[in-house]
Amino acid sequence: QVQLVESGGGLVQAGGSLRLSCAASGRTFSSAAMGWFRQAPGKELEFVAAISRSGGNTYYADSVKGRFAISRDNAKNTMYLQMNSLKPEDTAVYYCAADRDSLFGAAMTAIPYDEWGQGTQVTVSS
Question: Which CA distances in Å does 86 have to 24, 45, 62, 64, 125?
């Protein structure tokens, strides 16, 4: 089992940057594909980015491609989301998630992910 804790959220002006972290407990972090999702007020949960177990494959939503970068450090049991050129529409609660059953790649939908963090708020002011 993997327990997840997000950090790094906050308030930033449009055009600014933030780096989110997702710290995982448990010995199975390196065997789980990981993802970032977000949910804005009144909207559905949205896929942001995902990374395979080794970190060799990454996946992005079109809305963040070229601005966000996902990475992981299996030695530190931590995943990151570097967010650059932030826009007001990036405002949301950001969640990290783990898919323990992934064999290769990483899912771009929420269903396969079976462990979730509590979320961290990101607010981008215009």
Answer: 26, 19, 14, 9, 9
Tokens of 117: 């963090």
- For 90, the 3-state DSSP assignment is helix
Please return the burial class of 119, using the count of CB atoms within 10 Å of its CB with bins 0-12, 13-18 and 19+. Answer: middle
71, two tokens: 């990475």
Q: Please state, as a whole number, how many other Cβ atoms lie within 10 Å of the Cβ of residue 89.
A: 11
* Cα 108 from chain centre: 11
Q: Per residue in 36-82, pLDDT tens?
A: 999 999 999 999 999 999 999 999 999 999 999 999 999 999 999 99
pLDDT value at position 55?
A: 95
CA distance from start to end of the chain? 40
Instruction: Please provide the size of the chain in residues.
Output: 126
Give dist(CA 24, CA 16) in Å, integer: 27
